[in-house]
Amino acid sequence: MTQRNLLTALLLCCFAFTAQAQLSVGISSGANLSFWKWEFKDISGDIDFEPGPGWRAALQLEYKFSPLFSLRAELANQAFSNRLSDLTDENGVLIPNSWISDYFNTFGGSLLAKVAPLKKVQGPYLLAGPGLAYIANGWHKISANLIEGEEGSIKRDLDLAQYQVRRDQWLADLGLGYTLS
To answer: How confident is the model over 118-164, as pLDDT tens digits?
Structure first.
């Protein structure tokens, strides 16, 4: 008899819990700072890439478990970048104001935990979770002083096969956000 009452109480708790849940669909966008880790088989040592700016636009599906916690699945188009600056020539002499930035456009998805840490203030939240991405294309931006006779910056498409860039990527998303209502 006790087991039957316990099972009934458990089912009632589950129904009460899911009655508070909320499913929402929407879009999200934002800026990011990319920290890439590159592994080159032919080069030993660290190349010292700097983090670079990027952006993200996503369709999202969110399941709210409580006012403070929800899970979000996103399908996104995202641009990542990194940068090398203060480059030297073949003799080791510093080339002033020199830099090369690599940009990668990706399509992918993430499963994120969303935590709203402030009960009394609606809006700010933290996001964290794993993601997968596929690199669709890429390009370089190069400071013109690296190429004789050029001014400004130069944009060139990257041949991903030539650079042997692995197109499938895994990533860790960590971010801050604000819900506009």
So the answer is: 878 888 999 999 999 999 999 888 875 666 666 667 888 888 888 77
Asked whether 174 and 130 are in contact (CB, 8 A), the reply is no
What is 15-71 written as a DSSP string? HHHHHT-EEEEEEEEEEEEE------SS--S---PEEEEEEEEEEEEEEESSSSEEE
**CA 76/CA 103 separation, integer angstroms:** 16
The half-sphere exposure of 159 on its side-chain side, counting CA atoms within 13 A, is 3
* Pairing of the two strands 124-143 and 99-115: antiparallel
d(CA 68, CA 115) in angstroms, rounded, equals 6
For tokens 């506009």, what's the residue? 180
Map tokens 């197109």 to a residue.
Answer: 167
Q: What is the pTM of this model?
A: 0.69
Per the listing, tokens 């080339």 go with 95
* Spatial separation of the C-alpha atoms in residues 26 and 63, rounded to whole Å: 12
